[in-house]
Amino acid sequence: MQNQISITRPQAGYWRATFSNPPINLIDPDTIAELSDLVAELERDPDVKVIVFQSSDPDFFLAHYDVLADKARTAAMAPGPTGMHPWLDVLSRLSRAPVVSIAAIRGRARGAGSEFALACDIRFASEKAVLGQFEVGVGAVPGANPMARLGGLVGRGRAIEIVLGADDFSGALAERYGYVNRTLPDGDLDVFVDGFARRVAGFEKEALAEAKRFLDQVSLPDDALFPAALETFFRSVARPATRARMAALLEAGLQTRSAVELELGRHVVLTRT
């Protein structure tokens, strides 16, 4: 298995994780396994204080889940330490890990890519970022329950707009809604994120971890909300109408470096069965 995530350590207490899974940084079972191993390191390393997640591809942070991945393999993956499916497990443990996790979003983060970004503590975006939960547009229910996270971040009405509208959100609009913390000019993103991470890495680990723990208590959804959403996702993607809409998108160029992937919010509306 080729590694999809490379780790560098620019400074004591500061890690950078870079995604690279050509052609468009799809998430698949191997991505989940690597993330699980990485989160375990974050949980047990006494020195790491902050981790930045970024992409080697300027057009795709994490595109979405690989719809051609073996669904039986995905569904049958062994539960993680929380007892949940490993995708839910990774997201929950990352949110609660005693480190500050930052998604530096340049390019597209949709579907499971958006779910991953939402599980990070902080989201900083480039003006070229595009975020969205497109699943309802193809007849599916988002599997990791981003509804629970978005409701707390952006409010009920805007969460409904994001999830049920299934459209793309630019970096600027995502910032306005609270989907991301802030959006910066593309040329400024890396410098800003690096500066913030270095600042946090200079503080004491115990204070960071304990302050985050208290914030978690009042801001994170209960883990019990997540498994039912994933079960509903698996049922929804098995429906004939959903399979037909997905097949039409694949025929049009989904999962390739195509106009469909670049403007997926528009193409889920154009897809007809």
UniProtKB/TrEMBL annotation:
Gene3D superfamilies, from UniProt?
2-enoyl-CoA Hydratase, Chain A, domain 1 (3.90.226.10)
The superkingdom of the source organism is Bacteria
The record's keywords, sorted A to Z, are: Isomerase
> What InterPro entries does the record point to?
ClpP/crotonase-like_dom_sf (IPR029045), Enoyl-CoA_hyd/isom_CS (IPR018376), Enoyl-CoA_hydra/iso (IPR001753)
Instruction: Give the family, as the similarity comment puts it.
Output: Belongs to the enoyl-CoA hydratase/isomerase family.
Q: What is the lineage of its organism?
A: Bacteria, Pseudomonadati, Pseudomonadota, Alphaproteobacteria, Sphingomonadales
Under the heading PANTHER family, the entry gives: EG:BACN32G11.4 PROTEIN, ENOYL-COA HYDRATASE
One MF annotation (Gene Ontology) recorded for this entry = isomerase activity
Any Pfam family: ECH_1
Looking up SUPFAM superfamilies in the UniProt record yields: ClpP/crotonase (SSF52096)
What is this protein's record name?
A: Enoyl-CoA hydratase/isomerase family protein
Organism in which the protein naturally occurs: Sphingomonas horti
